[in-house]
Amino acid sequence: MLSRSQVTQPLNNQVSSEHGTIDANNDDRQRASISYRLKNHPMCQGCTDMLLDSLGKQLSDASKERDSAIKTLKEIESERDTLKKELAALEEGARELDKLEESYWQEFNDFHIQLQTFQNERDSVNLKYDHDARLFEKLQRTNVYNDTFCISHDGHFGTINGFILGRLPEVTLSINPVGFFSKTEHIDGEKKNTYELLFLNRRFDHAMVAFLNCLQQLGDYAERQENNFKLPYRLCADDKFIYVDKIGDASIRLQFGQFKTWTKALKYTLTDTKWILAYALSTSHDWG
User: Fold this and answer.
1) Rounded to the nearest 5°, which phi and psi values hold at 119?
2) What does the record list as coiled-coil region(s) (predicted)?
C-alpha cells in the first residue's frame, strides 16, 4: 500500500489578489492527475477508493479554505477602501480644523489688541475722572462768596475784606469817600429812589435802612424755607419809622444815634449777612 506522500504531491492552490497570489486549479485537473499517478502503482480497488475519497475530502476542504480566504481578502479590500475614504475625510477635516484654528488665533490676537486698547482708554478715563472728582470735591468745599466777601470782625468793628465798618471816638480811622461806591434803590411801583452808600452823604441813612430792609426780606424768605434757620440778630422797625432800621438793639441810622450804637449795628448787619450767605450756599432754592 502506498503512503500518502507517494501518491500525492503538494497542492499548488493559489488565489490571485491585490495582496498576493493563490493558485487554485480546478477539481477535474487535480482528480485526473491523481488517477494517472495511481495507475502506475499496483493498488487494490478498495485502497484506491479509500484514497480517492480521502483526497477528494482534502480537496474539498482546500477549496472551502480557498473560497473563505478569497472572501476574506475581498472583505479586507473593501474595508481598506472604506478606511481610505474615512482617512481622506479625516485628513480633510484636519485641514479644515487647521484653518479654523488659524482663523481663531487671528481673531483672538485682534480681540486682545482691541481689549488692550480699551483697557488703556479706560485707565486714561479713570485717571481723568479721579482728577476731576478731586477737583470737583475741592471746588465744592470752596466758598467763592467767602473768598470774594470775607466777612469777619475786629473787636467792636465788623469787617469785610479787611475793611472796618463803623467809627468809635477812641479809635481814629481815616475815611476816604473818593472812588467807586455802592448804592441802593427803593422801587415803589414806577417810582424809584436811589440812595448812595457814601459816608457823610445826607442820603447815607436812607441807603443803610434800604439795605437793612433787603436783608430783612432775605432773612424772612430763608426762615420760611427752613424752620431751623434763625438769624442771630433780629431786625425790627423803630416806632417813629415804617421801614426796618434796627438790628438787635442798635439802630442803623447814624443821624439820630451815636457812633458806638451805629458801629454795633454795622457789625450785627455783617453777621446776619454772613449767615444768609452761608444758608444760600447750602441750599438749592431759587432766590430769584
Assistant:
1) -65, -40
2) 59-103
Which residue, among 149, 156, 152, has the nearest Cα to 173 in the 3D structure?
156
Task: List, for residues 69-120, the tens digit of each pLDDT value.
Answer: 999 999 999 999 999 999 999 999 999 999 999 999 999 999 999 999 999 9
Q: Please report the pLDDT score of residue 30 as a whole number.
A: 61
pTM of the model: 0.47
Q: In sequence order, what are the residues at sequence separation of 6 or more whose Cβ sits closer than 8 angstroms to the Cβ of residue 40? A: none
Q: At CA 76, angle to CA 71 and CA 81, rounded to 5? A: 125
C-alpha cell recorded at residue 233: 440778630
DSSP, residue by residue, 177-244: --S---EEEEEETTEEEEEE--TT-TTHHHHHHHHHHHHHHHHHHHHHH-TT---SS-EEE-TT-SSE
27-39 vs 45-141: helix crossing angle, rounded to 10: 150
* Beta strands 244-247 and 235-237, pairing class: antiparallel
Residue 10 predicted with pLDDT over 70: no
